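Sequence in, structure out. Go.
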Amino acid sequence: DSPWSFFTQVSGQIATDFESITSDDFDYFARLGANFTFSDRFSLNFGVARVRNFASTFILPAIGCTWQPTDDWSFTLVGPRMTLSHRINDRLIIRGGGFPTGGLWNVKDDEGNSVDYGFASYNAGLGIDFKVRHGVWLTAWTGANFANELRAEKNGETIFEEDLNSGLFGYIGINIYEW
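Output:
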């Protein structure tokens, strides 16, 4: 078996007021990379990621690692995302960690101009993953967010920017893993 494996991820989004849908309303995140496994317990990940922060798009290098000191504990660091996980059993995982979050919404102003409203933040908290069936997991997180920024941009120019107070967050979702 080769110690090398490769990965790719593409996820899209639509963020609009649904009054008119244009190419400004669509965006995507993508990453491409490789994983080198040094042992059953440690691997390095590296590659590139396409990210968008407000109206700017970046291609960034990505580097990280996964360390599994025991069968039920693991630590993952990939770019600004850090997670410590404890597998309780085959259906339940508890996690703690931090990760960037935010969103971008494109709407028309009163004059019909395209305006991007963006929010950027960093979350730190606790999560739980519950296996519903093979490859399908229910996930829930709660914690605190900080370094919050709200911004509006029109034609690449910032028209509004404000730092927001720290607060609390929570979310639930479904992760589907098929490979």
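Check: The chain has a mean pLDDT of 88. The first strand starts at residue 4 and ends at 14.
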